[in-house]
Design brief:
Number of helices: 12
Number of domains: 2
Helix content: 10-25%
Largest sheet: 7 strands, mixed
Radius of gyration: 20 Å
Distance between the termini: 23 Å
CATH class of the largest domain: Alpha Beta
Shape: globular
Strand content: 25-35%
Structural class: alpha/beta
Number of strands: 17
Length: 350
């Protein structure tokens, strides 16, 4: 075991503060990584505040990790010291079930091991995330960062990026399709970029007139203010897909109306019961589909990084001194960031 400096929460109300954690010595298939950057995801805040009721403390959040390889285990063949690599939302799975064999480790039938607030499959120890100076991860759950990507801006691709890329690829979005994006946060702005790069026409739904120009700046072909009934009527039956990134309960029914027959509404943000209730008649009458998607497997996570390098796609980020993490959490909750905080881990070492 080795000691590592980190920032973490001791209780739902403690806020985040410095602490020391233990990292294991590399196993034969492990990669030891010096963390350079870590994105701040809204999920980090939910876990820090125990919003979902199963946080184990102390908690060290962070699952959008970019770093430099410092050591590799004896069985590692894909990485070497000095490589710039990434670690996302998972650090292990059973590796034997049908989902794992299909490269869909996020759907592991035994449950994947998440990067923080999880338990190591070998020794039962708690997993700690990327708000720290180092991490040790199995080679299978490490991805290579292409040279063409800015490492800091690449960090959110490991959650916000793969979360929006995966369903667009899985459900076959391509040139000629019309895609709607609901929500203009960290996920939503990436959804716009990916849909455009895949050749789709993109419509953004926003509740605020103030975000119309920003949505167009991000690449939207059309912007609909969802609180305007006339604008919503004007897009009825128009879209092939809707990528819904909103993480809180909201009325899905008006958006279903915007889909054409055989259209698909994909949830990537909402983890709670649908409220208000869904009008199932809108699905049945025109064979529409309500679907969901969770991050992506390891092959697809490497694919999204390579895709971004090829197409010049990056997340819009604001760099953060880790000593300001509690203020950053408050700003995220106010939607006062465009569009993702990324912690410069040099501020932890300083």
């Amino acid at each position: 075991m080795s000691q590592a400096r980190a920032y973490g929460a001791q209780s739902p109300s403690s806020g985040l503060a410095p602490l020391n954690i233990e990292r294991r010595e590399p196993r034969p298939d492990d990669v030891a990584i010096e963390i350079l950057y870590c994105g701040v995801c809204h999920t980090d805040i939910h876990f820090a505040h125990n919003d979902w009721g199963f946080t184990e403390y102390p908690l060290v959040p962070g699952h959008e990790i970019i770093g430099r390889v410092t050591t590799t285990g004896s069985g590692v063949s894909g990485f070497r010291e000095g490589d710039i690599v990434g670690v996302g939302c998972m650090v292990d799975s059973c590796r034997e079930c049908s989902a794992c064999n299909d490269g869909l480790e996020q759907y592991c039938l035994e449950g994947c091991v998440v990067t923080y607030n999880g338990h190591d499959r070998h020794d039962g120890s708690t997993t700690y995330g990327g708000y720290s100076e180092s991490i040790v991860v199995s080679e299978r759950f490490v991805v290579r960062v292409p040279d063409a990507l800015d490492p800091a801006a690449a960090a959110p691709l490991l959650c916000a990026g793969i979360t929006t890329y995966s369903p667009l690829r899985h459900y076959g979005v391509r040139a000629g399709h019309r895609v709607g994006v609901v929500g203009m946060g960290g996920l939503g702005h990436m959804g716009i970029k990916f849909a455009k790069a895949l050749g789709a026409e993109v419509t953004v739904f926003t509740r605020s007139d103030a975000k119309v120009e920003e949505a167009r700046h991000q690449g939207a072909d059309r912007v609909v203010v969802s609180s305007d009934r006339e604008q919503m009527k004007g897009i009825a039956g128009y879209l092939d897909f809707i990528l819904d990134t909103v993480p809180v309960q909201h009325d899905l029914n008006p958006y279903l109306t915007a889909l054409k027959y055989d259209g698909m509404h994909i949830l990537v943000g909402l983890l709670e019961p649908v409220e208000p209730p869904l009008n199932a008649g809108a699905l049945v009458a025109q064979r529409k589909v309500l679907a969901g998607s969770l991050i992506g497997g390891m092959p697809e996570t490497q694919e999204v990084l390579d895709f971004c390098a090829e197409h010049g796609i990056a997340c819009d980020v604001e760099m953060l001194d880790i000593r300001n993490i509690n203020d950053a959490y408050e700003r995220v909750q106010r939607s006062d960031v465009r569009y993702r905080f990324v912690i410069d881990m040099a501020t932890l070492r300083d």
